[in-house]
Amino acid sequence: MKILPFKSSDFETLYKIDQECFPPGISYSRDELTRFIRHRLAKTWVAHSENKIVGFLVLGREPQKVGHIVTIDVVEGRRGTGVGKALMKTAEDWAHREGLGILYLETAENNRAAQNFYTAHGYAKVEEIPNYYPNQTAAWVMVKWL
């Protein structure tokens, strides 16, 4: 597996993966995903395996040395195989080199698999946000100090 920087030719595949990973209303629209990826302070990494894209991560850089993991998506058949771990390591290594002091993300309160994954990677729940998602599901904000 290789983790490579985003190329514009990756976009359609990333969009399809996001639509498959999250239900309608939680998955990003084409415009939203484009805006996140193309933001001047964003970095996107793409996981490739056997000539296929198997996952990606979008990180937005914010003021005060803060990074926001906008999304991490791994195709269903590759979850639990190290793709997410490799994407997180790549993003965290970059954030550390860039001098960021903290990374944060949001995850649905009922997504125990994601919460367990993030906890195993050193993230801690710091705040619950009621009705965060359009379907009224609450989210946990999870933080990792670098």
What does this structure look like?
The protein is of the alpha+beta class. It has a single domain (2-145), classed as Aminopeptidase (3-Layer(aba) Sandwich), CATH 3.40.630. 30% of the residues lie in helices and 36% in strands. It contains four helices and seven strands; from the N terminus they run E-H-H-E-E-E-H-E-H-E-E. The chain has helices spanning 11-21, 30-38, 83-97, 112-120, and strands at residues 2-5, 42-49, 52-62, 66-74, 102-108, 124-129, 139-145. The protein has a seven-stranded mixed β-sheet with strand order 1-2-3-4-5-7-6, with helices on both faces. Strand 2 and strand 3 form a beta hairpin. The protein is globular and about 40 Å long. The mean pLDDT is 95.
- The SSE string, one letter per element, is EHHEEEHEHEE
CATH topology: Aminopeptidase
What's the CATH first level?
Answer: Alpha Beta
Biggest beta sheet summary = 7 strands, mixed
- How confident is the prediction overall: mean pLDDT? 95
Number of domains in the coordinates? 1
Distance between the termini: 25 Å
Strand order of the largest sheet: 1-2-3-4-5-7-6
Radius of gyration: 14 Å
Unreliable spans:
none
Shape assignment? globular
Tally of contiguous helical segments:
4
| Percent of residues in β-strands | 35-45%
Named at the architecture level, the CATH assignment is 3-Layer(aba) Sandwich
Helix proportion range: 25-40%
Determine the structural class based on helices, strands and strand pairing. alpha+beta
Total strands: the figure is: 7
**What is the CATH superfamily?**
Gcn5-related N-acetyltransferase (GNAT)
